[in-house]
Amino acid sequence: MIREVLRTIGVACIVAGGLLYFISSGDIGGQSDGKRLQVKLDQLQKELDQTKEMLAIAQTVSSSEKKPVEQKKKKKEEKAISKTEPTKPIVKTILTIDPGSNSAVVSALLERTGVIDDAAAFDAYLADNKLTGKIQIGDHEVDSSMDFQTIAKQVTSVN
After folding, report:
1. List of E strands, 40-144
2. Taken in order 51, 57, 61, 62, is the CA torsion positive or negative?
3. What are phi and psi of 156, to 5 degrees?
4. What is the pLDDT of residue 83?
5. I want to staple 125 with a disulfide (CB 3.0 to 4.6 A). Which of 14, 83, 84, 148 is the partner?
6. Domain assignments of the chain as residue spans, ordered by start
7. Phi, psi angles (nearest 5°) of residue 146
8. DSSP per residue over the chain, as a string?
């Protein structure tokens, strides 16, 4: 869905560029330069508004498609809590790292799921070991019995 929207936006930009190229090489009905520029600006503004609307629709559609999936994953994560240790159960989960997620986002997600206790400490560990730029997108199986080194190795390797 997003691919189609971006393709449409790209085509619109190419058409607008071609249109501006041909319009700028000719005269718009004998109008002055100031009037021509205003017409061009108006056209560009309309195209920008249309592009913004398409992008907003794409973001709304993609986020509404993700919400049910994320809720199902959270339920699975809650069910995956192990009952082997009564004082502190081991939390096993599949961590899904989306494109564009940085180490702070991953650390916060790990803390939210109960795999780690301190997101800031894990983020600092990644930074100290120069692993912040090596985080891999995708699904990673982690649990709360893992130490920072093991978790870092898991989320920076391709599964």
Report:
1. 92-97, 138-143
2. positive
3. -105, 5
4. 46
5. 148
6. 2-67, 92-155
7. -80, 145
8. -HHHHHHHHHHHHHHHHHHHHHHHHS-STT--HHHHHHHHHHHHHHHHHHHHHHHHHHHHHHHHHHHHHHHHHHHHHHHTB--S-SSSPPBEEEEEEPTT--HHHHHHHHHHHTS-S-HHHHHHHHHHTT-GGGPPPEEEEEETTS-HHHHHHHHTS--
92-155 is a CATH 3.90.1300.10 domain: no
Q: How far apart (Å, rounded) are the C-alpha atoms in residues 130 and 152?
A: 11
- Structure-token pair, residue 20: 């501006």
Token pair recorded at residue 24 = 């700028």
How far, CA to CA in Å, does 105 sit from each of 40, 74, 102, 123?
42, 16, 5, 9
